[in-house]
Write a structure and sequence with these properties.
28% of the residues are buried. This protein has a single domain, classed as Nucleic acid-binding proteins (OB fold (Dihydrolipoamide Acetyltransferase, E2P)), CATH 2.40.50.140. By secondary structure, it is of the alpha+beta class. Strand 5 and strand 6 form a beta hairpin. The protein has 3 helices and 7 strands; from the N terminus they run H-H-E-E-E-H-E-E-E-E. The chain has a 5-stranded mixed barrel with strand order 1-2-3-6-4.
Length: 148
Amino acid sequence: MLKTLIRDISAISITALIGLAQVPTPEMNKILTAAAQSLAEMTFDSAAPVTVHGRVAILVWPEGTSGMIVVEAEGSGDKYAFSTAKVPVMARQGFSRFTMQPGADVVVTGVRAKDDAKIGPGFKAARADIVTKSDGNRVFDRSRLEKQ
């Protein structure tokens, strides 16, 4: 019983600390929000597909514009900033800020920005078409977005 209680308290404490460690500074929050807004306005090259296997580094959920997932590619260490969709639209697919956390293994397929543009602090810019967690659960699918 005591062993279980200690394990549970440790798990909760570690989760809380990880969550606190992922909170960006106000300055970084401004930079990431501006990057997400710029990314949402970029033009993407449908002839330049990209598939990135890696870990989520940052999730950005700005109001009024598309979200952004920064993924560190496995092996190369390159960081890709993927534009997703506006928060309410993503929520209708079941994707919220609680769906995945930084450190989660994902596979993101999409297309790169025209001219291999970079955004924010040196992230390769891309548009996410499909985001799949390591357990095979597809959490975002652009083809399921409502046509506007």
